[in-house]
Design a protein that fits this description.
The complex is a heterotrimer of chains A (169), B (349) and C (484). Chain A is mostly helical. Chain A is 75% helix and 0% strand. Chain A folds into two domains: 80 residues, Up-down Bundle (Four Helix Bundle (Hemerythrin (Met), subunit A)); 40 residues. Chain A is built from seven helices and no strands. Chain C is mainly alpha-helical and 484 residues long. Helix content of chain C is 74%, strand content 1%.
Chain lengths: 169, 349, 484
């Protein structure tokens, strides 16, 4: 008996639940932790699809680095007052919800009308998911964007330091 | 993955959890014995021969203690934090290569370790270490106590800062061995000599960062008793406290085991020699696996001893010194290590 | 993978200058604002020169990730020129505001690098990196006056909404990948034309999301809401740059992407629907931008809304598409011409505003400009030229740009859209000419203040020469376009 489809379902369900919980929690720490759980579920999805490297990096970068900083900042700011974070449900937000719902239904209808179907994983999937193959394509086919991102990160780094520096001069 | 595999892996997981708990119990005892020895005391010697059952008695006591949750604490996260800590500690054990493979079922090899032959084993270890911050940070935040919060924040900042150097120090090893697979790294060292001789700087950096990641002295600022009472576990009692404590020792053994794998040749007793052929044993036989396991645990235990030794010998760092060491010394050093390793490898090829 | 180092030289030059040399200079030289300023002006000059020299060197590089020569190099030169103009205008402005920091120049040049990536991209991944590089630099530059609430508000709004738009963009790209099986423009176009879309729905939804993301970057209706606040709150020198070069860059990407998503000769139902969507966006953007601009009392806000409207005009060119019309021009050429002339006139207008702006942030109301002609006759005259050009009055460059766009739209059967364009142009004349009337035919309220132009004078000179020259000799640019 193959367990992979079952595990996929479990992780997919978990991902949806934790994502919903992320936006519905009022306590910012709960929200952040739901997002962490969501990232773990995504990593699980990647694993069932044989994308091991992406799964590990998903946990390492998103759950382990970015969200830690988010939680850190929430704790430092000590956002205890949940009332201040509740949304006012006015006419505008109701309208927005309605329009959003219409779009969501449209998208669901269209995708249901034309299902992409579930294909079996190609046999190459295991090889593609390894660190070696990702490293290979990163340094050959995708060399240019890879190097360009270094400039992007540099700009973001300088920018954040400039904005956060205590004294301009 | 089919059902047989699933069942075997579940059994392995149960075994590993028990192994970790027992190991942690004896590490606590070792810590107390070594500290007593260093301070010219006797240490625990009442429960069992030479105090061998002391830790079990302690755990039993913790079970009986009242579980106190501070009134204004966030009880959900207060309960979740120890669970995260211990879960993360245990997960790392899944990829540590405790020994070579022993049996083969349906073309898949199984040994004492669960998944050492994973393509991204090393990344998984790094990922789990970085996730470990949540346990500590949440424990500090949810207790709703200034001491706890300070401890949690310090620990989060410390772990984030030292994680970078830790990850970068490993890259030298990965460059040399050409793999993230722990078994392949060990096999490479068996054939070419241990990495500690090729990467001494990386080993030192990894050791220092491992001390910081496990919140051990001289980097135990998160729980610095004179300033913060007990740091992030000030407000914990009963078995929740026990779990946090266990996770700490579990992490210590895990980092020692990782160091043994990456730098000290893992389960390999002597490099360049095929021990199985020398002893006339089948490499997949039980005696060979036991020898491997013994060697591996011996190496890890030695490193644990050094951890303990350092804790009872060195004074604690100040917070700014800690940050300076991490960002201004270790990080540039580990980057330099990668650059030099890369250049040397390029020239050799 | 073959790498064309010679052809990629403009990108390599700016990359090394920014990432390797510039950082070292900034880290190790003290009191370096002057040096860094000069260094980056030289960098942009060199990059632009390389782009011009190599414009005939066509082809692809880095395994088809980027295209070289022609169109991309034209935009390289344009962005570098705009960057130099912005640097020259920014220095006296920042000195006046006493917040000159060398990192400002780094951010400005890195945004130029991002724009160049956008123009060179022939793969959605590169496009994404370029857009992000440009946007992140803009977020930082918009919030550069950290003590000014308006500036911080502008940066925060821009950042949050920009991130949201980026989400649309990336999701759109991933769905396009799902629908066509490729991220390269060429492959996507081939798949689309040969009707081999595996999942047309994914492609359509992906295209829609991509259009939404790009519409945000060009500030088209209904994703224009951020523009007035950001353009008003950001330092004027920054607004001058990001409302012109930023928009031109977004359009360079829009054009390149739509060569793939709406290839010439593709007449399926999907293509027609795409065209209708863009036509509606264009019409709404033109009308809304101009009508809202009429009621503004702040010059920066008025120019911001007018810049929204100009995005609407340029969208008409996307609709006209890459197929050549009777005059040998296509819609995309019209966009490039308009983007070029718009860059000169809008940047000139904002630079005038920046020169006149007082240290305390005063002198930004339209009423303040009353009688300007008596106190600053040169600035008033220049402003009048820019306003005439923005309104589309001959013989300035803005007129020919608009003419080409309208002609291209009519030729593809979008006459109604051209009519909307003309109507909204007439509306726009109200506030553009209104400002001129204010400057020349009304009396000043106060005695005015000193407004030295300094280095910004060069920028103004270049702008006005560009507006007049390309208005008189549009053929020069058109000949360049025909050579692509």
């Amino acid at each position: 008996m193959e367990l992979q489809p079952l595990l996929f379902l479990v992780f997919a369900l978990g991902a949806v639940i934790s994502a919903v919980s992320t936006v519905t929690r009022k306590n910012p720490v709960s929200s952040a932790m739901s997002l962490v759980a969501h990232f773990f579920m995504l990593a699980g999805l990647y694993l069932t699809l044989e994308a091991q490297f992406v799964a590990a990096v998903q946990v390492l970068v998103y759950a382990g680095a970015i969200m830690v900083l988010v939680v850190f900042v929430i704790m430092l700011l000590n956002l205890g007052n949940e009332q201040a974070l509740t949304e006012n449900r006015g006419l505008r937000s109701t309208l927005a919800t309605l329009i959003g719902a219409v779009f969501a239904v449209q998208i669901i209808l269209v995708t249901v009308a034309e299902p992409t179907g579930a294909n079996a994983l190609p046999s190459r999937a295991v090889e593609i998911g390894t660190t070696e193959s990702i490293g290979q394509s990163l340094f050959t086919q995708y060399l240019f964007p890879f190097e360009a991102i270094s400039l992007l990160l540099l700009a973001a780094l300088i920018g954040s330091v400039v904005l956060a520096k205590r004294h301009m001069k | 993955m089919n059902l047989t595999q699933f069942l075997i892996i579940t059994a392995q997981a149960g075994m590993l959890v028990n192994m970790m708990l027992i190991a942690a119990a004896y590490m606590v005892l070792a810590e107390r014995k070594v500290s007593a020895w260093i301070q010219n005391r006797l240490g625990p010697n009442r429960v069992g021969w030479w105090g061998m059952l002391q830790s079990f008695a302690d755990v039993f006591k913790l079970y009986l203690k009242e579980d106190i949750v501070p009134a204004a604490a966030d009880y959900k996260f207060h309960a979740l934090a120890p669970v995260i800590s211990i879960a993360v500690a245990i997960t790392v054990y899944a990829v540590i290569p405790w020994s070579g493979p022993l049996i083969e079922i349906d073309g898949v090899q199984y040994g004492l370790a669960m998944a050492p032959d994973m393509n991204v084993a090393l990344l998984t270890i790094l990922a789990m270490t970085s996730v470990g911050v949540y346990g500590v940070a949440l424990a500090g935040w949810s207790s709703n106590s200034k001491y706890s919060l300070m401890g949690g924040l310090r620990s989060a900042a410390q772990m984030i800062s030292y994680e970078l150097s830790m990850g970068l120090s490993i890259i030298g090893v990965v460059l040399i061995c050409g793999s993230l697979n722990l078994v392949e790294i060990i096999q490479y060292q068996t054939a070419n000599g241990w990495n500690v001789f090729y990467q001494p700087l990386a080993f030192v950096i990894f050791f220092v960062t491992a001390l910081a990641e496990t919140n051990r002295a001289p980097f135990d600022l998160p729980e610095a008793e004179p300033e913060l009472v007990g740091g992030y576990h000030t407000e914990y009692s009963g078995m929740k406290f026990g779990l946090l404590y266990l996770a700490e020792y579990g992490n210590m053994l895990a980092s020692s085991a990782i160091m043994a794998t990456l730098f000290l040749g893992g389960w390999d007793p002597v490099p360049f020699i095929d021990e199985a052929a020398l002893l006339g044993l089948d490499p997949y036989s039980l005696p060979m696996v036991l020898i491997q396991h013994g060697v591996f645990v011996g190496k890890a235990a030695t490193l644990v001893f050094v951890f303990i030794w350092i804790r009872w010998s060195l004074p604690r760092f100040r917070y700014d010194q800690l940050m300076n060491l991490g960002w201004k010394i270790l990080l540039p050093l580990s980057l330099a290590n990668i650059t030099i390793t890369g250049i040397v490898l390029l020239l050799l090829n | 993978m073959q790498i064309d180092y010679i052809g990629s030289l403009p990108l390599i030059v700016i990359w090394l200058a920014l990432g390797a040399i510039g950082i070292v200079i900034q880290a190790f030289v003290r009191d370096n604002t002057r040096l860094v300023f000069g260094y980056y002006v030289a960098t942009l000059g060199l990059t632009g020169l390389a782009a011009i020299v190599l414009s005939g060197h066509k082809g692809a590089s880095f395994g088809g990730m980027i295209t070289l020569g022609g169109y991309a190099n034209y935009f390289d030169a344009l962005f570098c020129g705009a960057g130099i103009m912005a640097l020259l205008a920014a220095r006296p402005y920042l000195q006046k505001e006493e917040s000159e920091v060398d990192e400002f120049y780094t951010m400005l040049v890195s945004s130029v690098a991002g724009m160049m990536l956008m123009a060179h991209a022939s793969n959605l991944v590169v496009l994404f990196v370029g857009i992000e590089l440009m946007s992140i630099s803009f977020y930082v530059m918009a919030g550069f006056f950290r003590t000014s609430t308006k500036s911080v508000e502008a940066a925060l709004k821009y950042f949050l909404l920009g991130c949201f738009a980026t989400g649309f963009l990336v999701y759109g790209m991933s769905l396009i990948y799902g629908g066509t099986g490729s991220l390269a423009y060429g492959d996507i176009a081939r798949t689309v034309v040969t009707q081999q879309l595996t999942y047309p729905t994914l492609f359509v939804v992906g295209t829609t999301l991509l259009v939404i993301g790009l519409s945000f970057k060009i500030a088209a209706f209904p994703f224009h809401q951020w523009a007035p606040d950001v353009y008003e709150g950001a330092p004027t020198a920054v607004t001058a740059f990001m409302s012109t070069a930023g928009k031109a860059a977004a359009f360079s990407a829009f054009v390149a992407v739509f060569v793939a998503l709406l290839p010439a000769g593709w007449t399926s139902e999907i293509a027609q629907n795409q065209q209708i969507v863009i036509a509606v966006i264009a019409a709404a953007t033109m009308l809304l931008g101009n009508i809202t601009a009429v009621v503004q009392s702040n010059v920066k806000r008025m120019l911001a809304y007018s810049s929204v409207a100009h995005a609407g005009y340029m969208l008409m060119g996307i609709l006209a598409g890459p197929s050549l019309g009777t005059d040998g021009m296509n819609g995309h050429h019209a966009i490039v011409f308009y983007a070029t002339s718009y860059l000169f006139m809008q940047m000139g207008a904002f630079v005038v505003v920046g020169i006149l702006e007082r240290r305390d942030g005063g002198f930004l109301n339209i009423d303040d400009y009353a009688g300007l002609h008596h106190r600053h006759p040169v600035l008033a005259a220049l402003m009048a030229v820019f306003m005439f050009s923005l309104a589309g009055i001959p013989p300035f460059a803005g007129f020919f740009g608009k003419y080409m766009l309208f002609a291209a739209a009519i030729e593809r059967g979008f006459t109604w859209l051209a009519i909307v364009g003309v109507v909204s142009s007439v509306i726009s004349a109200w506030f553009y000419l209104g400002l001129i009337v204010k400057m020349y035919f009304q009396d000043a309220k106060d005695s005015g203040h000193e407004a030295p132009a300094g280095l910004a004078g060069f920028t103004l000179a270049v702008s006005v020469v560009g507006v007049v020259f390309f208005g008189l000799f549009p053929q020069l640019l058109i000949n360049i376009f025909r050579s692509w």
